[in-house]
Amino acid sequence: MNVIIANKQKSILQGLEIDVIKTLEGEFDVDDLIAQFQNFFFQRMILDITALKNYKDIRTLQKLSITLDMDKVILLLDDSEESGSNEYLSKLISMGIYNFTKNIEGIMYLYNNPNTYRDVAHIHQLDASKPQDVVVEKYVEVEPTVTNKVIGIKNVTKQSGATTLIYMMVKQLEKNYTVIALEVNKSDFRYFNDKKLISIPNTDIGNAIAKYRDYNVILIDINDSKEAESLCDEVLYLVEPSIIKLNKLMLINSNTFKELKNKKIILNQSLLNAKDVLDFEYESGSKIYYNMPPLDEREKSIHALNLLLVRLGFTRQKTDEQEKKNSILGLFGK
Questions:
Q1: Host H or E run for residue 92
Q2: What is the dihedral of CA 228, 231, 233, 236, to 10 degrees?
Q3: CB atoms within 10 A of CB 277
Q4: Strand segments (E) across the chain
Q5: What is the mean pLDDT of residues 281-297?
Q6: Among 41, 100, 152, 180, who pairs with 235 as Cys (CB 3.0-4.6 Å)?
């Protein structure tokens, strides 16, 4: 359930269609809010910044960030010059506060798609001593470049869609990167009839990675190969969150999610909404890296898949949706 703390922007927050367990109205000292919520379980807190006394002093937000899990807090900014400046936003980002907006559309977007640092890095001023317009321009134009990255994909629940997901990732990535995919100890790739998808035995995995090392990205369908898993720069662990798949998984290994702690878990072919994902994290004691809905492999460009690829560092996958998101969040174009 969610918490709403409102003040001057109460009228905006009244339009939210979310489940609410607790609502506060008025202006509060940050220490009072911390005392109320540091041991209070909530899924999301929607915080009207004007409900914080002295919110224009960035140290007020710093106090909040030290105590509360700011990944669960969506900050509704006002139109004041201070809170809307890039310097103020940069300080929020430096404290790990990534979810901020100025309108109800932005709140609902962040409610379902919480930001990571990558989503706000372009407005983060690393050198605040430089003129504001120069710094902002620099971080809008410069993109991190991904080179020679080996990414493994592994089914945690049986038949969670690793092979098909890799095929679709190849189709998306090849528009902007050189990419090859390797399948270890199986031959399911043959059904896709694509020369970029290669099936190899486990004994050849090291040589194959070396052979294609000049590619921007090598995707590996790990299957049960421990050697292939160890050779990856990072691994995505796929969990299909259906009841039957999860129950089977727990019967086989009840410690699965403990073993996956601090690893990148993808809920694949998932019909869970944002609230369901939060419940899943709470019940499994895990952190979900990405919630991937069922995909249509016949689509030429898949927004949900592009978002995952951008999060993994493949920023050339940006589409018009990124510009749309900036507009939704209400932070630009003033």
A1: helix 86-94
A2: 20
A3: 19
A4: 2-6, 20-25, 44-48, 73-76, 100-101, 149-155, 179-184, 197-200, 217-221, 234-239, 264-267, 288-291
A5: 89
A6: 152
pLDDT in tens, 197-256: 999 999 999 999 999 989 999 999 999 999 999 999 999 999 999 999 999 999 999 999
The pTM of the full predicted model, rounded to 2 decimals, is 0.59
Nearest 5°: phi and psi at 55?
-65, -20
Conformation bin of residue 269: beta by default, left when phi > 0, alpha when psi is -120 to 50: left
User: And the tokens for 133?
Assistant: 């317009």
Q: Which of 58, 90, 248 is nearest to 157 (CA)?
A: 248
Phi, psi of 45 (to 5 degrees): -115, 120
Instruction: Tell the residue number behind the tokens 């590619």, with chain if given.
Output: 215
Q: What is the pLDDT of residues 148-177, one digit of tens each?
A: 899 999 999 999 999 999 999 999 999 999
Q: Which residue has the tokens 């994290």?
A: 281
pLDDT for residue 126: 64
The token duo for 126 is 């690393």
Amino acid 138: pLDDT = 27
> Residue 142 corresponds to which tokens in the numbers above?
């410069």
CA distance 301 to 169: 10
The chain-wide mean pLDDT, for the chain, equals 84
